[in-house]
Amino acid sequence: MLAIIHSAALDGIEGKPIRVEVHVSSGLPAFNVVGQPDAACREARDRVRAALLSSGFAWPLQRITVNLAPGSVRKVGAGFDLPIAIGLLVATGVVAADCLGDCSLIGELGLDGSLRGVPGIVSMVDRAPTRAVLVPEAAGAEAALAGRRVRTASSLRQLVAALRGEEPWPAPPPPLAEGHLPAEPDLSDVRGQLYGRWAVEVAAAGGHHLLMVGPPGAGKTMLAERLPGLLPDLSDQEAMDTTRVWSAAAMLGEQASLIRRPPLRSPHHSASVASLVGGGAYRIRPGEISLAHNGVLLLDEMAEFPRAALDGLRQPLEEGWVTVCRARWVSRFPSRFLLVGATNPCPCGYGLSPGCCRCNPASKARYAQRLSGPLLDRFDLRVAIPKTDVADLMGIGAGDSSAVVARRVAKARRMARKRGVACNARIPVGALDEVAPLSSEAALHLTRRLDAGRLNPRGLHRVRRVARTLADLGEHFGPIREADVAAALGLRPDEDVLRGAA
Ligand SMILES: [Zn+2]
Prior knowledge:
By secondary structure, the protein is an alpha/beta fold. The protein has helices at residues 39-42, 44-54, 81-91, 121-127, 140-144, 156-163, 194-206, 220-225, 236-248, 273-277, 288-291, 307-311, 314-319, 361-370, 374-377, 390-394, 402-418, 432-435, 440-451, 457-473, 482-490, 495-498, and strands spanning 2-11, 14-25, 30-34, 63-69, 103-105, 108-109, 115-116, 132-136, 149-153, 210-213, 264-265, 296-300, 321-326, 329-334, 338-343, 381-384. A 5-stranded parallel beta sheet has the order 11-12-15-10-16. Helix 7 packs parallel to helix 17. The structure holds zinc ion (ZN). Zinc ion (ZN) binds next to loops.
């Protein structure tokens, strides 16, 4: 009276193969789930019982023990409902043990016996220990993204009929269709702002984190929203990694397709730290910084974000991963994103224009404190975005379109890949002398800056990487010239300049 059904669990964004062992024996009626189940997993008893009765099957009045093995993996959520239900039907002889074949089961049961999708289908199907995987019909397209053989069913009754050979199997999900790509806003919509447009192009070409400081209505958000459209398509591996994160966050929807374009996430400053970096009371869910994996994370009004949220960005900015701890459990989520910050120079917003600031010194100092320190240091590019001239707004000429800029960006990214890095912002310090050697004038320029105490060693490396990107965009592939170093320094002015204090 023992049935063994294969399934899979989700840990972070990793799938883990699971054996669901269902044992039915004589004794006082009872139902126990062992093997590190969480609360939702233990509640399977009520859902499975109602689903079996609604589907016309009996609930065995016997002693039922369900073991989810291995015990070292934490089992979260309702995805084991389906393997438990089928395990019960096999153990009580309603379904023959061999008709399941080499197939894993994943899915939640509704009280009416319907099958429902669960978060993380892509990763779980990918790591299921069998050749085929059966998932709820609604999750069929998502499951097919893992490239495995997928079967679907919409209800427990339909599944049992197919297993017994009484009804044909429902049609498998259609072959993987490339989803339609969302329209991305075009850079030619931005009037004026030549410097801002250029900074966005440099950020895209080199993968440099960008901070834009300027008054409200200057177009900072508009520029930032056009940045993902300048980036090249994701590689197959990047597309799969980002898709797995979105699957774990249950954000792919029924028309799931691979995420081929760099995503843009722009959380509001009132968002909780957990929703930003990942977490949650029951299930550890990836946060906005992971949904932006291989894309762009835009923090609009960055100075308004709570300190804890901004501190939470440090580890992912360094390592491309974030570790989320909840009670005894730790999950790791990928989070390598291009960070774009946008902020006012001071609380009133007009600190950049001489004589226009209405802030009192104390509130201005508090604001300045938020906009300083280690986080600010991680921006390779920090640019002031002044209010657009009326003449520019009314002018008819538009700058280069996103397609034109994207071609220049793609060329610069190809150069970086030839050097063995994904983008210039990730050139290791040890490789700078080799891939971004300085001309003697450029070296002298930087030495003077260092001697004057206006550049620290970390800043020096960042300036050299940006100068490499500027040289690539200008198609100068020899030693870095002084002009590129000077321009890179100009894209990273001192903090007080950005606050309008200078
Ligand atoms: Zn002000």
